[in-house]
Structures are given as structure tokens and as C-alpha cells.
């Protein structure tokens, strides 16, 4: 007959194994958050001698990004997009630009960490400041050959200002495919899905009459569309939150909405680069973006997700949190927008670390998907003594920082309406749980393996 | 009366304390070696899926660069030069651009790690592919207010193509100063000083008749001027090696000497950026630089230095090894040059790690002094589907890599003859001895403290 002591011992063992089972992963992705972006944000938010919360993370690594061309040869491509990088992280498969959860060349669906976690009984969540149908979130729970296939009306002959951008006919349900990204998310079984992209849930599902949003509700999602609805939503429901038609508004913007601007060389300087003079863009401050009012912060969305994913959960969860507009604002040459978005990532990270403090089996990882165009350049040229006009051939924002110095951010990867990504390896940060699980240098698909192994999937 | 066992025990203790005393530091600085440069070199030298020796280092950190303006206010400046960054590393003092071992505003001489090490009886060495009088090596053993004061003839009213670039009259011996960088190096007491910059040792010392080179010999240096002389030099002499008039030739160059070039837009495209077409620079390979023939490699110089610093040395040493032309070739928009130079750093690192394997109390650190202009950009724009001309407003090299893909490197920080530095934090790598001594995030002056504490100075 068991003694009280035996019972207590058995109870302890049971509790211990529950804790061990309830391993959680919070993966935070700063889209485009390379060391230039991190340093620009550090200087602005904390001062040059300050430190970000990111800087206090005990584990640090560098991640080599891998991309291949869309053939069976899979030749290296040295600069990625957010579709193939998120696919690397979510599935462990090196793929080609534009692909969501599918393989290069042969277009196979690659099983995602969310699908594996769900199958094992873990809860799953995806939170983003982009459309939930955007490349990064989509790659964790959908499979299409072209990231632009975000809703049922954008599957064939997608155009932008009459420019044909392709489609993904093979992914149509009529062709035996899984349908658009929004339709796949509606039936993804995710426990929490929060972000922007409401407009992609308005069209009717392929071959049906109800909207994608309605299909999501029929599949068990509670739908919330505002910050108030988010914060007041029933605590036990699976939650779909769509807080803007597309990308969520960002927190900071340039003074009066300004972005990076071109230097204005004098006529004489146009004749010879060492003659005449140049007028640089006026210095500017960053200011709150009025359009952000009423938008849930990334931290608020993360807090709601963590509460839902962890409540009465003995099995654990996987949560991906994306700070999307570090990248999106860099494409648009808006450094203040990127800085405010990195601040949002810092706040969400604080929530993640708080959660991990009371749930010690929580692995917290923060990384970027790829590098971006912005460069912190000298406010005064290092060749200023030569006393000739020296200026960027691209576009520059000269930002007055809170510590009263001038910080110049240069965008000069192309002359198109949007900057390019760049190819440098990106930082990876981990909490103490990551110690021994993450080498100082990894390839991006290794992230999938690290998370899968940690969750025992 | 002591037993044999007591004697053996005492002997062991003595040996142990000797080993502990003989702590060595090998600090390798890749000038301008940021994550863009590391990734570009990785892709070229090892392939996108390969890894550099750097990537195998067990300790990794990020280093925030600190620079201030040249006033007593010491306001933050967000982009550094190699003078103030080397001064941070060598002395722990945050200084202003252009300063060598001196403080911003009040122009104090800051004691360097080389001076501290020498005073404590350690041997010291400086090895570089730049002139030994260049900013990085100079900051470890000299003190002047202006990095351009490299020799006795360049102290007052320095000009370049008739452009006045200042000087450092206060540093003249006649003004009670220590004289030019070359003169200070000649009497620095360094055990090994190897690199380029012979032309700075030709002028007569201030107020004297003999050349700076002769002054160095009178102070105990054996002078070698070729690879053959270096490899055949007497094993016990203090060694000054000057293997080129200025910077040493680099190992790789672009095909036929090509560097990054401008895209050529059609006339129609000059009228509107979305019309017409553009001709991008022809792809090119990297090839051996004929001018490098006969130049000692960074590895050869490092091997000679390590042998001399460690032979019959019970007290230990400090050695700084600089791979200078990652930066210099980036200034000149020559990516093949930077790649070959990073390869030289890898070889020198291999020597350092070999040495540490047989001398376990050797701390090996590798870092960069500041970020640089080069960006790895898409060979095919990520917006290529839009089918309009898209190209960099700067200069681009399109390199055919050994694995047969095209890698585009963009230089677009200015329209001057030389690119700017950038402000991102830089990587730091350490061997196992660095474990627990280097946090995942540090400020650059912390490097001085880490080395000083490790050497017990």
C-alpha cells in the first residue's frame, strides 16, 4: 500500500514530467533586422552608450541565409526575400524567392513547425504587424508557390498597375491545390492568429459563397477587428485578429511624414563632382505616427497570444511573433518607422522574457530573416577635410537623436520605388534555455531543427 | 627534509605558475570586417553553404563602436574611423576621428595596452598589411592628434593635391611632443613590428640627420625589407619589417584589375526611371594580383611574430595582427581585394589557433574596428517581375563565384573617390579562453579591459 511519502513522490514526478512536456518556444522575427538596423535603433532609443534588451540576451549567434534558384539544380542565390527565408525557418527547406512553404524546382509542400506542433498536440500562434497573409507569417502555416497569392481573388494573372506579376494556378482548389494563403490560414487550426490583412479575408472562398473571414469563423475562430475587441475577447476562444486592411500602421514616422531624401548638388557640381556645392536634406526628428492611434501594439498582441497559448496547457506551444515593418519601412526609406518598429520588437521581447521567467521551459529566440538596405553613414563625411562636395548618390535621412547628435541613414541599393534586401548573415539572440542548443554560427534552416528538437517533435 | 614527492609537487606548482604567468593575447583586427564583408568572403571562398574558420570560433559577441566629437562635450558621433576605433581598443578611451592614442578635446596621451604590457615585462608585437604607421597599428604604440602625421616630413601643413589637411604641430619634438608616428615606433620598444610603410622611415628624424629607419636600428631593431629577409632573419633579434613603400599589395583583384562600375542607363531611362533600359556592369571573376608576388603573407608575418614573441618567454606577450585591406579595398570599391584580404586573415587566424592549441593560456580574439560601405545586393532585383530598369545609383561589381553563381557587391555611400565607413556594430570572435570573459554584447573600449585583465596588467 503506498505511503503518503510515495504518493508525494509520485505527484512530484508527475508534475515534473508535465513541466518537461510543456516546453514552449517563442520565436521573434525582426524582418530585415540586421546589425545596421539594430545599431540605428540602439543609438536612437538608448543612446550610443546604451543597450537594447536584445543586447542583454545571453546567447548570440550569426545566421547564414540560404536561397536557391527555382530549378532542380538549386544554384545558390546570394540575396533572399522574406518568403524563402521564413520557409527556411518554418520548414528547414532551402527554397527560392517568393515561395511560401514549398520547395524550389519541384514545388513540394514542406511540413511546417506549426503543423508538426499541432499534430503533436501543442498549441500554436502567429502574431505579426504585417498582414497575416504576408510572407513571414504565411510560411508557418500555408503552402503556395507565389507569395502574392494572398486571397482567392489573387490567384491567377495578378497585376499591379497593369504589370503582370504571375500567380499560382496550381494552388487553386480547382486544380487540387490548397487555395490562397488566407483560405489556408482560415482552416489552419492555429489557436491565435493576429495582425493586419483584413482585406484578404473579405473575398468569397474559391468555389463558395461565404467570405474567407466567415470560413475562419465556421472553422472555430473568434474574429476580432479592433484593439478593444482584442483586449476584451473571450479567454478560451481560438482567436483571429485583423486590425487593418493590410500592414498595421507603424508607431514612429519622420517629422511631418518625411522620409530619406536626395542631396541637391549645385549646377557646377553636376558638371564635375569636385566643383560647386551641395545641399543635404534638412535634419529631422522622429515623431509619433498619428495613423498608429488605436492600433494594438506588438506587445499587446503578444501578451494576448501568450495568455491564450499557455492557459491550462500541459503540452506547450509554439508562437511566432513578427516585427514586420523594420523591413517594410526600410523598403520605403523611412528610418523613423523602422526604429519605432524595432522598439515594438523590444517590448514584445520583454513580454516573452517575462513569460519565460515564470515558465522556465520556454525557449526564446530572436532573429532576422535577411539583411536590409539601410546603412548608418557619417553625418559628416570622413573625408570632409578635402573640402569638396561629398554626398550619397541615393537617399539620406539625417535624424536628430534624443541625445542631440545627427545620425545619417543612407538608402542606395537601387533607384526603384522600393529598396532591395541585402545578403549579410543576420544576428540570432537566445535566452539561457538556448545555451548549448545554438552554435555561434548556424545556417538559417538549422533554426527549424533547433525548435523541432527542443519541442521533441 | 623535503621528500621527492614534495619536490615534485613544488616543481608542478612552479610550472603551473609559470604557465599562468605566460598568458598571451593574439588580437586580430579585420579592418572594416563587418557582416557584409564576412558573408561576401564566405560565399566566395567557401560557398554559401560553407563556413569560414571565423565561423568555427566558440565565442561570439557584437561590439558597439563609440566615437565622440573633438570637444570636451564629447557628443556622440555615430560613424568612426580606424584611428579612434583602434584608440578605443588599444587604450580603452573613446576618442574622436583621426586621433591616435590621444583623447578628444584635451589631447591627452592615453596609455596603450602595448605600453602596459611592456612595462610588465611582456613581449609585444604589431603586424599589419597596412603601413606600420597607419591608424590601426599606430594607435597601439604612438600618440598624435592627427593620423596623417606618419613621418617627420608630414607634421605641419600636410597637403594632398594642394588641399590643406592640417597637421599636428603640438606633437613636434620641438614643441615638447613625441614626434611623428614613425619616430615614435622607432623607439617604441616593440619586439616585432611588421608591415608596409617603408617610405615613412626614409626621412630624417626631427632635429637629427639619420633616417627614422636608422634611428630604429640604433634603438635595437633588426631591419628587414623583403620576404626573404623576413624568413631568414636572426631568431633572437627585435624585428622591424617594412615590405612596401606604403600599404602591402593585396592578394586578389578583379579580372584585369576591374573594380565596381556604374550601370549605364539608356537615354530614355534618364528621362524617366521606369522607361528605357539599363546595361549593368559585365560579370567578372577574381584573379591573383600580380603585384602581390614576393609580398609576405599575413600568415607568414604572424608566424614569424609568434615564434619570436614566444621563444624562451616565461612572461607572455601581446600581439596585434591587422588585416587592413578589407577596409582599404572597400574604400576603393574593389571587392576581390577585400575577399583576398579576408582570406589572409583566415590564414593568420589558423596560425593563431595552432599556436593556442600548444599554448593553452593564449586568448585569441578577432574583431573589426568599424563597418564598411560594401553591401551584398541581389544579382537579380527582388522586384525584377516589375520589368522596369532597376539598378544601383552607386557602383556595383558582379562577381562570378567559384560555385558558379553571380554575387553583386554595391558601393553607394558617396560619389567621392573613396567610400565612407558605416556605423553598425561589428562582430567579435573568441577562442575557448574567451568564454566567460566576453559578454554577447560589449562596447569597443571594453576590449582594452578584457585584454588588460586577462594579462593581469
TrEMBL record, chains A, B:
Chain sites annotated for binding Mg(2+): 31, 134, 136, 322
Keyword Zinc annotated: yes
GO molecular function terms listed in the Swiss-Prot or TrEMBL record: alkaline phosphatase activity; metal ion binding
Entry cofactors: Zn(2+); Mg(2+)
Cofactor note: Binds 2 Zn(2+) ions. Binds 1 Mg(2+) ion.
Active-site residues annotated for this sequence: 82
Keywords from the UniProt entry: Magnesium, Metal-binding, Phosphoprotein, Signal, Zinc
Pfam families: Alk_phosphatase
Domain of life, source organism: Bacteria
Gene3D superfamilies: Alkaline Phosphatase, subunit A
Record InterPro entries: Alkaline_phosphatase, Alkaline_phosphatase_core_sf
Signal peptide as annotated in the record: 1-22
Residues noted as binding Zn(2+) in the record, renumbered to the chain: 31, 327, 331, 369-370
Protein family per UniProt: Belongs to the alkaline phosphatase family.
Name the UniProt record assigns to this protein: Alkaline phosphatase
Organism name: Parahaliea mediterranea
Amino acid at each position: 500500500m503506498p505511503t503518503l511519502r510515495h504518493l508525494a513522490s509520485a505527484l512530484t514526478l508527475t508534475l515534473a514530467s508535465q513541466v518537461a512536456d510543456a516546453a514552449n518556444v517563442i520565436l521573434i522575427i525582426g524582418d530585415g533586422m540586421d546589425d545596421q538596423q539594430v545599431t540605428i535603433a540602439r543609438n536612437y532609443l538608448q543612446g550610443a552608450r546604451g543597450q537594447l534588451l536584445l543586447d542583454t540576451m545571453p546567447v548570440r549567434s550569426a545566421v547564414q541565409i540560404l536561397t536557391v534558384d527555382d530549378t532542380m539544380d538549386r544554384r545558390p542565390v546570394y540575396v533572399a526575400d522574406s518568403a524563402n527565408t521564413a520557409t527556411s525557418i518554418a520548414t528547414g527547406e532551402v527554397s527560392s524567392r517568393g515561395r511560401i512553404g514549398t520547395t524550389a524546382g519541384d514545388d513540394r509542400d514542406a511540413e511546417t513547425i506549426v503543423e508538426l506542433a499541432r499534430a503533436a498536440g501543442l498549441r500554436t500562434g502567429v502574431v505579426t504587424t504585417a498582414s497575416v497573409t504576408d510572407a513571414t507569417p504565411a510560411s508557418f502555416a500555408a503552402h503556395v508557390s507565389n507569395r502574392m497569392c494572398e486571397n482567392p481573388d489573387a490567384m491567377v494573372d495578378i497585376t499591379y498597375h497593369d504589370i503582370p506579376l504571375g500567380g499560382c494556378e496550381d494552388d487553386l482548389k480547382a486544380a487540387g491545390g490548397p487555395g490562397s494563403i488566407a483560405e489556408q490560414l482560415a482552416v489552419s487550426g492555429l489557436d491565435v492568429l493576429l495582425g493586419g490583412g483584413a482585406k484578404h479575408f473579405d473575398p468569397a472562398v474559391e468555389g463558395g459563397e461565404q467570405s474567407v473571414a466567415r470560413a475562419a469563423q465556421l472553422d472555430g475562430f473568434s474574429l476580432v477587428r479592433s484593439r478593444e475587441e482584442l483586449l476584451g475577447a473571450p479567454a478560451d476562444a481560438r482567436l483571429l485578429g485583423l486590425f487593418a486592411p493590410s500592414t498595421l500602421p507603424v508607431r514612429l514616422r519622420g517629422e511631418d511624414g518625411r522620409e530619406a531624401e536626395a542631396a541637391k548638388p549645385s549646377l557646377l557640381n553636376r558638371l564635375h563632382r569636385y566643383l560647386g556645392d551641395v545641399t543635404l536634406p534638412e535634419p529631422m526628428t522622429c515623431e509619433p505616427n498619428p495613423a498608429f492611434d488605436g492600433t494594438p501594439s506588438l506587445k499587446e498582441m503578444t501578451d494576448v497570444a501568450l495568455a491564450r497559448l499557455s492557459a491550462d496547457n500541459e503540452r506547450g506551444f509554439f508562437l511566432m511573433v513578427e516585427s514586420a515593418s523594420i523591413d517594410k519601412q526600410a523598403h520605403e526609406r523611412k528610418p523613423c518607422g523602422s526604429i519605432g518598429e524595432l522598439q515594438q520588437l523590444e517590448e514584445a521581447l520583454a513580454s516573452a522574457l517575462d513569460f519565460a521567467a515564470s515558465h522556465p521551459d520556454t525557449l526564446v529566440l530572436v532573429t532576422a530573416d535577411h539583411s536590409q538596405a539601410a546603412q548608418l553613414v557619417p553625418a559628416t563625411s570622413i573625408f570632409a577635410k578635402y573640402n569638396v562636395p561629398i554626398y550619397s548618390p541615393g537617399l539620406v535621412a539625417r535624424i536628430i537623436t534624443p541625445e542631440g547628435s545627427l545620425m545619417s541613414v543612407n538608402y542606395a541599393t537601387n533607384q526603384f520605388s522600393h529598396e532591395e534586401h541585402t545578403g549579410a548573415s543576420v544576428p540570432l539572440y537566445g535566452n539561457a534555455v538556448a545555451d548549448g542548443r545554438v552554435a555561434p554560427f548556424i545556417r538559417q534552416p538549422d533554426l527549424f531543427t533547433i525548435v523541432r528538437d527542443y519541442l521533441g517533435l
